[in-house]
Predict the 3D structure of the following.
Amino acid sequence: MANPVFWRLRVKGILLGGIVAVPLLMVGGCGGAPDGFVARGLSGHHYLQGSRHKLQGDIDAAADAWERAAAAGHVKAQYQLAHLHGSDLLGPRDQEAALAVARPAAAAGYAPAAHYVGMSLLYGWGGVDRDPAAAEPYLREAMAADVARARADLGTLLLRRAQDRAGEPAGLTAAAEGWALLEAAADDGEPLAQLRLGEALLDDSHGRRDPTRAAALLTEALDGGILAAALPLARLKLAPGQGRPVDRAGAEALLDRVEREAPPHVLVDLGLALLDEDTEAPLPGGVLRARQVLERAAEAGRTRAHTALGKLLAEGRPGVLPPNPAAAVAHLRAAAEDGNGEATRYMGLLLRDQGRAAEALDWFTKAAAQGHAQAAVEAARLLIARGDAASVARAIALLRAEAEKHVPAAIELARLARDGVPGVMAADQARARQWLRHAVAHGSGPAAAQAATDLGRLLVRGQGGAADPLAARTLWARAAADGQTWAALELGRLYERGAAPVMAPDPARARHWYRIAAAGDLAQAHTALGRLAVAQGQGVESVRRAFGHFSRAAALGHAWALYEAGKVAETGGAGLAGDPGTALAWYQQAAARGVDAAHGAMASLYERGLGVARDPVRALALYRVGAEAGNAWAAYKVGRALAEGRGTPADPVAARAWLARARAEGVTQAATALDRLDAATAAEAGAGGSLRITIRPLEGGAP
């Protein structure tokens, strides 16, 4: 048998001691360009070298060989190198680097690489921004090439889109295709499809809830090696229904199996599931078990585990786990150093909440550079709060870099344009409309609903363009259907007041929308329902309902409801007489909570002697408190008292200052009082005598 190393071959008659000498001309003839035959052969050689090194456990050598092959365009080497960068085998996970080498292989038509890119963008692997729209063509390419699990991933993408676009034609189309893909893949025994389909059948938002079939699919997925299926399966065993008894022992066994056998990334999922206390069937073990599981995953280098632990230890859990700021910061720093934008952003949030805005800004800016769009929004808010031109310009640049794809950034730009920055940037409500329309058109879920709510307000008020209450009504109805309680409140207000000439007031529909907003515990909706109960009801029961709403609103933080309750108590309603003494108690509560109008309302009671002894001096003192807090009507009343000398010696100069302030705030009575004061001053100057001011008696009643 010939020696495999020293072999004999005659090339153009040249033979040197058993070693072939190949003329350089021959090498050149084979093509020396990088895409030539020899280059392709060398890239294949490097790829095989890398594979051998990988089998031998020498990851660094494998990476070196695959890098040489990848540089020559070897698609399989690019794909393998992407997997290395996307793991922690080469050090900290670097998903951006993984995508950088996987994309060329995908572009060259290598379907596994296309699938890898699609999954990275769909699930946000390694902290990259989730981008389902960009993921879709990659997943479709992989599916067309029969990559096994591509159907399951594309089906997942489409069902998520269906949720985001619920009720829209695009949502219905996505739902139909998504279900079909998952059903077909599950029928073919694809474990991931069985997991995703099982999860979808447990999600009420899809309208196809079927726990029995979900349990069967999840069991198949678990048997197929998808340990993540144990988590929803355990929840099912803990939630009785449709004849299923609670099986706590079975759930415990599933969780124990996950802890024993699951890879670190599934341990992270388990830890997060254990921390989810809002679910119908919380998993046994709770916070303390979650901490143990997450610490194991963190020790294995999982960045998500560090992030979750950092948040958990920063906040703690009352009675179970005290906050541990030092440990929290250590975990968050570890995740941030691995490039996790969420951990970096959370560091900024901690510092911001401690009042350390400058340090928080540094972390938010770093997180934005790591691709965390919401961190850019947080950084912009801090910059805008500074109020100087350079900071505002920097904030706008941060927001514009994200606004095309990140709806909250577009909303922040819209609000900045709507309100302007005093002394730095004028308001531009037309531009605000543009950004909000973009957010509505390109967003989904709560962010799009918020944009629709804000846009509706501009349209109703005619800010930045023509008023269009009907378009606002449509926007608010869509946002309210998506759970935006502020949109429901705005619909209630629109129906309560109407919008002549296109909409007449409709109290019944106003009440309907107020009730929807109140069901979401929106305090202002309770206040509005209290007003309507008095205005439209009769008898004690109506008043009792009204005060129940006012009290609930105040408990939720809407102190103005206390003032509204005082007005009802003072003037009466629903066929009942007023009770000024009770009104005073409500006004005192409102004043203590910072409602500036409440001081004027109390002053009016003392001024007129309603429920209390008449006391002009105390009335003026209360009016002053309200005026100094910024209430324009109270400023008018102070000016009137000073002009007339009620509760204080007359002081025309001071009176004029207060009345001018009230007039500037839109109190029309103040303009009339100023005219009379000026006329009296002129008359006194002409007569050469002492000033005598004659003004009609003060109007009664609170504003």
User: Anything to note?
Assistant: The radius of gyration is 35 Å.
